[in-house]
């Protein structure tokens, strides 16, 4: 009988990548609470710019301390595309779209992102799509929609809101797929830092709104915006890039389906929103789907359970 246990170095790399992915998902889920607070005082564009500026400043300081330097030329295409689409357009579209549609519609549209990542990853990056990955994503998607519908306040949906949520899903997926090749020659910190800078530049047209709204916003809203920049952006996007550099885009996208379950828990703890039975069922489905998609059998088909992908020599920066 064959022993499928990976060698110790591969196992350690697998655990590190899984831990980085877990940090990302927890921090992205925590962003829900902060966005709820900051969104009352800041418009979508201003909130995105403030978050990106805080994130870029934090990442820039870390890069200087670590003497990371500039990314190699070969990585800039992926950095620029992911910065434009994921850090820039996605954040504005998501902030705006979720103000115009009910939670169920937002869950249905935005959570197509990981599915689009899998499709684009298979088409453009050659990512494998084992049956367990597809089955797990299907279960998690059903859970995410269930959570959204159960937490919906019965609000309506506008055509603009639906379009914005769809734009958020598409730009998220395209940004992730564009980021993956850049991680072959640049460090996760470099890719995240300069992607965040590109996103901040894209959002500069909202600078006037940010200045005006910051002068009137309560301190709690501004602190939440800064938190979004430091933790769910600077830290979580870096741990995301670290994990993505060691697995496929498809599997990383599937992992983010754990976020809706964590949002339910955090809303209960920090916002006093007691989840109903349907919400809890949806959260369990999300976690079950992630467990299936990351199972050892699926991992042997090309996921984190397999040996890490070989990485070519980098021409600039230092390893994280």
TrEMBL record:
Ranges where the EamA domain occurs? 20-147, 160-292
Q: Keyword set for this entry?
A: Membrane, Transmembrane, Transmembrane helix
Q: One Pfam family, please name it.
A: EamA
Q: Name one GO cellular component term.
A: membrane
Question: Transmembrane: present as a keyword of the record?
Answer: yes
Which family does the similarity line name? Belongs to the EamA transporter family.
Q: Coiled-coil region(s) at which residues?
A: none
Do you know which InterPro entries this protein is assigned to?
Alkyne_AA_exporter, EamA_dom, EmrE-like
What protein name is recorded for this chain?
Putative transporter YdfC
Q: Where is this region: Disordered?
A: 298-320
**Which organism does this record belong to?**
Streptomyces afghaniensis 772
Transferase listed as a keyword: no
The residue ranges crossing the membrane are 41-65, 77-97, 103-126, 133-152, 158-177, 189-211, 223-242, 254-271, 277-293
